[in-house]
Amino acid sequence: MLTAALMIAHQVGGKATRDALFLSHFEVTALPYMFIGSALFSLAMVILFSRLLTRLGPASLMPTAFGASGLFLFGEWALVLAHPQLGSVVLYLHIAGLGSVLISGFWSVVNERFDPRMAKRQIGRIAGGATFGGLLGGVLAERVADSFSVATMLPILGLLHLLCAWRVRGVDMVKGSQASAFNEAVSHGGLKPEASPWKMLQEAPYLRNLALLVLLAAISNVSLDYVFKAQATQAYGGGESLLRFFAIFYAATALGTFFLQTALSRRALEGLGLARTVGSLPLVVLAGGVGAAFVPGLASITLARAFGSAIADSLFRSGYEILYTPIPPQEKRATKSLVDVGCDRLGDLLGGGILRLILLFGPATAIPSVLGVAVALALVGLWFTQRLNRGYVVSLERSLRNRAVELDLSEVQDSTTRSALLRTARGIPGSTLPPASGGAQSRTNLQVFKASDPAQPTGVSESSSPPEGKPRPPVFTDPILRRVANLRSGHARTVRQTLAEKPSLDLVLAPHVIELLAWDEVAPNAIAALRTAAPQIVGQLVDTLLDPEQPFAVRRRIPRVLTACSAYSSRRAADGLLQGLADKRFEVRFQCAAALNLLVEQNPALHADPEQVWEAVRREIAAGKKVWEVHELLDRTEEQFGPAFVGLLRNRTSRTLEHVFRLLSLVLPREPLRIAFRGLHAGDQNLRGIALEYLESVLPAAIREPLWPYLDDHRPAQRPARPADEILTTLMRSYDSIELDLAALQGKSGDQQGHAKS
C-alpha cells in the first residue's frame, strides 16, 4: 500500500510538473512533437522492459528501475537549472515514457507476490493506497508551486521513486509460485517458445479489434489533451500558476476516478452491460467535444478532459479488462502488454501526427478542428463497441464450449458475460474434455495424462504398431505400474477398462483416480471405482474436497463418492461435508449439502452440527437475490442423489432455494420440510399458505426474517395464529393435494412446450 501510494503520488505530481515545465518554455504548438517523441520513447521502453522483466523477474528488476528513475530525476533537476528547455524535454520523455512501464512492473510484483485467493483480498487495499497517493501527489505539487519554483518538484519526485525502490526491495516473493516455476522452466529451456505477439495479433481478429479500440481511445485522448493544455496555457501563462492548476486538476481527476470505480463500476456492468459500459468513454468524449466546441473556454474543456480521464480509468477500464475473458491465458500473457501499452503509445504517435497536420493550416482553426477529430473518433468508437460486443459474445461462447476459459458465475460482474455463460452452460452437451468449470487446471491435468506416459497400455492398442521413428512403449511387469500407466494414458476406453478390472479399487491407485474426476467422459467410472474404496480413503477425499487449489470439476464430484462411506467412517465424511458448505463455489456447497442429507438418512445416528448448518444458511441468504438467480449446476443432482427432494420441481425452482431447504432439513424435521418446499411451488394459493404457515412456525426468527422475502408471501398481513401441531397435521394431510397440483402444473407446462414446438 505504501509503495502504491508513493508511486501514484509521483505519477500525479510528475504529470503536473512535466506539463507546467514544458509549457513554460515552449509554445503549445510544440506539444504534438512531444506526443510523437514520447510515444516512440515509450515503445522502446516497453520492448526493453518486457525483455528485462522476462529475464530477471519483477522482484529483481523493479528496485533497480525505481532507483534509476529517482537518480535520473536528480540529474534532470540539475539539467533544468542549467538548460531549462532541454531539461523540460528530457523530463517530458521520462514521465511520459517510463511512468506507465514502472506502474506495470509494480503490479507484476503484486501478481507474483500473492496467490490468486490472497490477491483478491489484498489488491483492493493496495489500490486504495494508490488512490490516496494520487491525492497526495496533487496536493504536494500544488503546495510546492505555491511556495517554491516548478523545478523544486524534481528532487521531491526523485525522492519518491527512491523510496519506492527501497520498499519494493523489501517485498518477500513467494517461492514455488507459478510465476517462479515458469521463469525456472524458461531458464532451463523446459518450455518451447510460442508464436510472436505480432503473429498472434495477425491471426486473431478479436485481438485486432481490441487493439483498434485502444488505438481509437488513445487518439481521442491526445486530441482532448491538446485542447485542454492550450486553453490552460492561454489562461495561466506558465510557471508556478500553471503548475498549481495542473496539480489541482490531476488530484481532482484521481478523486473522481476513485468515486466512479467504487460507486458506479459494478452497477454499470450489471445494469448497462459490457458494450454500454465500454462505450461510456467515447460517449463522454463525444459530449465533451461537442460541449467544448459550442461553449469555448477553459471551463468546458477542463470538464470534458476530467470526465474523459476519470471514465477511462474507471468504467472503461473495468469493461475493457473483461473483454480479455475469451482469450486463452497463453495468448493473453503474450499480447496484453503489446495491446495495452504498445497500441496506446501508437495512438499517441498517430494523434501527434494528426495534430501537426492540423496546425499546418494555421493555429486559428486548430482547436475547432482538433475537437472535430475527437468527436468523429468518438462516433466511430461508439459504433465499434457494439461490433466488439458481438465479437466478445461469440468468442466467449466458443471458448466456453472449447473449455479454454474458467469462469465462476457467482463472481461474474457484468450482465453480458453472465448471459453468455448461462446460455452456453445450458447448451453444452457431455464432452470428452474436462468441463469449463473445471478450468485450466483440469485441462492441464488431462494433458499431463497424455504427456506423462505416452506409451500405449499393455493389452490395449489404438493401432497395430507404434509410428515409425518413435520408441516402443515400455512393458510393465508390475501390475500396479501397468494400471497407473493405463489410468494416465489419456485414452478413455483404456481408462474405463482399467477401472473395471477389479471389483474394488487398489488404494495406491486412489490419487490417480481422483484426478480422473475432472474428465467428463470417464468421471462416472471414476466415481464408481472410488466409492468401492471410500471408507478406506475418506481422509484423502475430504482433503481433496477442501483444497481450493484442486480443480473445481474434481471437488464438485467428491461429495457423491463420500456418500458410500460406511457407518464407522461416515462421521469423518460428514465433518468434511460440513466444512465444504463454506466453499466459495456454489455447486461444491450444493453437492456437499445433498451428500450430507443422504448420509444422515442412511445413518440415523449421525447428526449435523446445528450451528454450522445455521451459519451456512445465513451465508446463502446474505448473498442476495441477484446471486440466487444466476446459480446453475453443471452436474445433474437427481442422477447422483435421486429425485426425492425436488421431484416435479426440477425446472420450477431456484437452485439456491433448493440448497437452503436441503440445509434446513439437516436440523428440522425432514419430511414436513420437503412437503412444505413442494407446497411453496403449488399453483393453489391455499396449499402455498399452509406451507408458509408451517415454515413460519418452525423457523427461528434469525433465519425466518431474512429468508421470508425469497418466499413471496402474499397472504394477508393479519392472520389468526394456530398451534404448531395443528399446522403440522394440516400440512401432512395436504401432501397428496400438493403432489397432484404439481403434477397438473407439470402437465400444463409440457403441453405448452409441445404446442410451441408444433
Radius of gyration: 32 Å
Question: How much of the polypeptide forms β-strand, as a percent range?
Answer: under 5%
Total number of helices = 36
Mean pLDDT: 77
**Could you estimate the helical fraction of the residues in percent?**
over 70%
- Structure class: mainly alpha
- Per CATH, which architecture of the domain at 198-238 and 269-428? Up-down Bundle
Low-confidence stretches: 174-193, 428-472
CATH class of the domain at 198-238 and 269-428: Mainly Alpha
Q: How many strand units? A: 0
How would you characterize the largest beta sheet? none
CATH topology of the domain at 198-238 and 269-428: Growth Hormone, Chain: A
Shape: elongated
